[in-house]
Design goal:
Helix content is 45%, strand content 14%. It is of the alpha/beta class. The chain folds into two domains: 135 residues, Rossmann fold, CATH 3.40.50.1980; 107 residues, Rossmann fold (3-Layer(aba) Sandwich), CATH 3.40.50. It is globular and about 60 Å long.
Amino acid sequence: MSCTRRESVSQVAVLGSPAYAVASEIAAEGEIVNATPLGSDPHYMEFTSSVAKVLEQSKAVIALGASADRKMVSELSKPKLFVLPEGLEDPHVWLSPKRVLAWVPQIQSFLDEQFPNTKNVHAQNAEKFMAALQELNANFEKLRGYCFVTQHPAFAYVEQDYGWRILGTLEVGEAEISPKQLTALMEALKSEENCLLLLNPYEPSKTAEVLSEQLGLPSVDFDILEVATRSYSSIMAENIDGVLHALKQ
């Protein structure tokens, strides 16, 4: 990450890829800097010297607050905002556009406090972003009742908010499911006429290959924003468009 002291001292550091993907939709140009190490897992974020430097030089911090990042940011004596509640067992709230809508006023208000001269820009950006979230929300609703198998166990909030039927997942924690669990999943899939496998584009899966080869299970990439480098709305629109196309909706 290239960020000089002069630049970062006037910026808000954002820690956690999903938080940055959302905050970048609202902030004015140059107001935030991504403090997240490239490819860093939100569950087990490492407090490296480069992260420490950006956090130290920033004027304030927005953090996801999923795990280790909460502890490292809590110790800083500067304004801070955690977008996730403390102690949340499953942090993947950001995959539900309906829940991300609740983040918008929090982040907008925090940025207004840090950059009062650009409140109007934050308001305009937030309005545009909320419109994009509403469109995503409507498209997610179209898939109510559809069957999915997910590579990563990250879709509990989507299932709860939109009624997607998550038949199974290919991972438990960070490990792939056991042969016994895979056999049970394959048996369950045999009774489903139309089920789609959602793959993490950044992680190959041997189990997914087995399902594709033996059952012909169709699949599509679904970026779960754990290594997000683009805006939230662009990533999620690409995700849902891919799913709708695969299901010919």
